[in-house]
Predict the structure.
Amino acid sequence: MTAISASGLHVHYGTTQVLADCDLEVPEGVITALVGVNGAGKSGASEMRGVWR
C-alpha cells in the first residue's frame, strides 16, 4: 500500500525552476528522507503535497 504518491511535480521560486517533473512514491511503513543541497526543492515538494503543513 502507498502512503505518499506524487507525480509530475514542478516547483518554481520566481523564475528559478527547482523541480521539474519529479515523481515520488513511498510505501506504507517505510521511513524516507529527502536529501539535497539548499535550493534543491525539498521543502517545495513537501509543501505542495501538504506534508509539512
Remarks:
- The chain has a mean pLDDT of 79.
- The chain has one helix and two strands.
